[in-house]
């Protein structure tokens, strides 16, 4: 992800998320430099169809946000982005990954579980836009099952 991608990324996030990040959040992610993993996926026409922002704290990777254009879902983009984030994090010494996902986001939950994430908790009424719960997921990056 580069500064020139931020407007398109923020626009995609507004389509995909009930409580989207604003451009400043993405600028903050870019400011992490090597401490963060901010990537975009571009289609054959040059349009951004997915993005992910992650960071590490000590030996843990945290997925801050991830979105895939609804028209491009179920094609492996999300799984590829998370797999690449795992590789990056392991290269930085991470042994675990964690994230929050909306309780009603069955597609994302299925993807994370297929990648070795397991449910470890719930944050009640976490999302400000509708009071939906966030389900907490954890993956062991040393087991090889989180790919």
Characterize the structure shown.
- The chain has 147 residues and is of the alpha+beta class.
- It has one domain: Gcn5-related N-acetyltransferase (GNAT) (Aminopeptidase, 3-Layer(aba) Sandwich), CATH 3.40.630.
- It contains four helices and six strands.
- The protein has a six-stranded mixed β-sheet with strand order 1-2-3-4-6-5, with helices on both faces.
- Strand 2 and strand 3 form a beta hairpin.
- The protein starts with 5 loop residues before the first helix and ends in a 7-residue tail after the last strand.
- The mean pLDDT is 93.
Briefly, what is this?
The protein has 147 residues and is of the alpha+beta class.
What characteristics describe this protein?
147 residues; alpha+beta; Aminopeptidase; six-stranded mixed β-sheet; 4 helices; 6 strands; globular
**Major β-sheet annotation:** 6 strands, mixed
β-strand number: 6
Quaternary class: single chain
Q: What is the CA-atom radius of gyration, in angstroms?
A: 15 Å
Q: Which shape, going by the Cα principal axes? A: globular
Mean pLDDT: 93
Q: Figure out the total of helices.
A: 4
Helix content: 25-40%
The poorly predicted ranges are none
CATH class equals: Alpha Beta
Please give the CATH architecture. 3-Layer(aba) Sandwich
- Biggest sheet, spatial arrangement of strands: 1-2-3-4-6-5
Order of helices and strands: HHEEEHEHEE
Assign the CATH topology.
Aminopeptidase
Helix- and strand-based class? alpha+beta
The total number of structural domains is: 1
Could you give the distance between the termini? 22 Å
Please, what is the CATH homologous superfamily?
Gcn5-related N-acetyltransferase (GNAT)
Beta-strand percent range: 25-35%
